[in-house]
Amino acid sequence: MRIENATFVITGAGSGLGSACAERLVAAGGRVVLCDLSEGVQDQARRLGDAAIAVQGDVTSADDIQAVIDAAQAHGDGLAGVIHCAGVVSVAKLVDRHGNPADLDAYARTVQINLVGTFNVMRLAAAAMSQNPPGDDGERGVIINIASVAAFDGQVGQCAYSASKAGVVGMSLPAARELSRHGIRVMAIAPGVFETPMMADIPEDAVAALSQAVPFPKRLGKPDEFARLAEQIITNSMLNGEVIRLDGGIRMQ
């Protein structure tokens, strides 16, 4: 698949990994529709110029995401792909220090956004891309979801987050198998610790410890390194039905 003159939806595009993906695809000649709940996504689209538009939306809303898909189809010659970066991080122990059980609504919210939201974006994007004329190898589109190393190495307090990201991992292969008849590929990236706004709330000593836990290179990942992998997935049609860890070799304890 070629990026030049193709249109891609990027969720969670207001900052961090999604923002980096938008910058890289526009630099490669692509068009992007940026989706985020934050109003800052509008500023991001303006910075990227005419190749970018922004549509605020909630990934768990069928109406919101259909509006994003419709905007993408109007922004170019059909929707070529989706990079789904939207999600939340949550930390809560099953039983706290006072013996109280974890909040069930908080657990459900994490799963709703990270897992149900991913399914929502994937189903609506796939329906649109299935109508595209086939390109090389009969390809009609590509979906890239974001998982996490927590899907495999969940830490204490990450039952909700790890379960939601493990669900994204679990959907990757069956979705790729199902959508193969439409010429649509499905991939997932499982990043480790990256320099994103979510990391800004973590104390410096904790960030330093996380950096030292990475075998090599001993630092946090950079958003553009994630975006470069997403670009490679888009352009390499043999990448399908797989989850790629992008983590410097870290295994969380």
UniProtKB/TrEMBL annotation:
The keyword Oxidoreductase applies. SUPFAM superfamilies: NAD(P)-binding Rossmann-fold domains. Keywords: Oxidoreductase. Transmembrane segments: none annotated. It comes from the Bacteria. Gene3D superfamilies: NAD(P)-binding Rossmann-like Domain (3.40.50.720). InterPro entries: KR_dom (IPR057326), NAD(P)-bd_dom_sf (IPR036291), Sc_DH/Rdtase_CS (IPR020904), SDR_fam (IPR002347). Coiled coil: none annotated. Belongs to the short-chain dehydrogenases/reductases (SDR) family. This is 3-hydroxyacyl-CoA dehydrogenase. It comes from Halomonas litopenaei.
